What does this fold into?
Amino acid sequence: MTYQVCIDIGGTFTDCLVSNSKGEIAIFKSPTTPGEFEKGFINVLHVAAEGYGLLPADFMKKIELVVHGSTVSTNALVERKTVKVGLVLTEGHQDILVLREGPRKGAFQWRLDYPDPYVPRHLTKTVAGRIDARGRELAPLSLDDVRKAASEFRNLGVEAVAVGLLWSVVNPAHELAVRAILEKELPGIPITLSHEINPMPREYKRIIAAAIDASINPIVRTYIEKLKTALDEEDFAGELLLANCVGGMMPLADMIRKPIYSVMSGPTLAPMAALALSDEPDIIVGDMGGTTFDVSALRDHQIIVTPDSMIHNDSLGIPKVDVRSVGAGGGSIAFVDEGGLLRVGPRSAGARPGPACYGKGGTEPTVTDANVVLGIVDPDYFLGGKMKLERELAEAAVDKIAERLGVTREQAAYAIYTTSNHNMVAAIEEITVREGINPRDSFFVCGGGATAIHIAEMADILGLKRYMVPRFMAGLSAFGGLICDIRSEESAVLLTSDANFNVDGVNQALKRLRQTGDGFLAEAGVAAENRQFEFSFLGRYEYQSFEIEVPFESKDGALSAEDLPGLVEAFHRMHERIYSIRADNDVVEFTAWKLRAIGKRSGQDLWQKNTLAVQSGEIKPKARRGIYQQESGRVETVPVYEMAELGAGARLAGPCLVEAETFTAYLKNQHQGEIDRYGNLVVNII
It folds into this structure.
């Protein structure tokens, strides 16, 4: 028996999903080890080995593949713990990261402090030399300026350098020359070139991507090296792939070359899992872990990729799967502010010490403590009974809130519960209602260990009609990693329009993209018959400021003049879909061309062959438990079902609880559930 593994490191627990050669999947969890994530990575593999009754050494030998979603780069950016970066720009343009793109911040945000640039002014150097928009050298590069910048960086203790020169995406000669000099003058210092990391015509997004990439390069490289060393010490001989932010996996060498693609990569796997679990066209994915609640959406059964992800006040620069996060997890801390209002999050108890009920030194009330007090979470069956919770400690923590608010313990616990729910509803509305999407028309897929506890009330608030509690909900991102593809995105700048379409130039660009994508998949070991390529272009109406991305099909990776009307019409339709207007008589400009290279992995679809036996006989609860009900103001007894004992077609009606080893689902009145053939609980609200 051989195994494929996906490990996703969360704020509280590290999830490990294991698929055997028959496609049978099991989930394991172990506490996250902040600051030493590689230890938690190995710990959860040992837990999995124990689950299969194997010694760790024997289990390691049977693992063919490990896929991994890392939070190292995201944490570094969020906590502002990146390395010192030097930035080289074209003379006269030293304020690109200061000026940004000037987007509107919001109708009512009329007074804002101007944010500091990502790279401070004293670490930003300029060099003489100029390339124009057609790739012509207007002024030669000043090698002396480059050497002077290198000397100043050396004196300032710079740990990485980003280079962003004007129009390097058309002619990279100057950027390449700068790198050659810097590598000689600053040996061992990583250099990021903007035309390589994010080849697009917009200076700010190209250069901010280079700066962010440089700032996390040593951090990601060090983590990968530590992880590889830890696996080598365990005699792991299989393949290791890392999650990227475009919804797929990358080999280690590619991630080291482009570490920016590891940013926010873990949460992007949850929508990939939802894509496989449901055929619904419009899906909302909510993943509530120990620290954050991550929400994403699928439209027309397609992942939404955004070019406008933000890290604090700066754009990430590169496109990524659109996932929004708020500080609303099981470990989110509740407190009463100076005005007497209850707040929940964004501060979290994390993995150390964790919620008070963990008994590891935490004393502040968290969402998990509230759920224990309410009776929804069974302290004796947390993680299938492997981790006992202390109800008395949870009660003592929640009593602090009760005293401040002047209410009973149960009322305080419910206030924490519902406040957390409304925080998550606001995040869902951000990615649906504010984007012109009615959540009532969407199917909700739960992810993370805590979402199923909260989804019933959130569904009623949002007016949802249906939602799913997947069998592997507590490791939804890890499940996404097990079944996702190897993916990479490449782009090329070539400005043309429908008024004078440059067919030959476009085809040359598409050919280069195809060759690059083919090389990436070949390096990743993907057989030719398992390679797929998806094309798109960035387009705009003439005189518009910003482009939109439009997918198109290309036979053999080439276009002809006869394809132009189809490209233009596709742009008009996409523009109308996004902005509700189209201008058929306006000139359409094409600014850049993109390729998504996709490689199918062996065994990633095996899980579909494992279906549940049909439910035989009437389902029976394993127990009954008292839950505090706000409507009646008292504790009421509800049936508790064991999910592992339910067969396909099994039906149950709320109010009730459904327990699995790694999560608890709470169904309210008028919520009726049915187990599908894969063991997922699909709930309809009547």
About this structure: DSSP finds 17 helices and 35 strands in the chain.
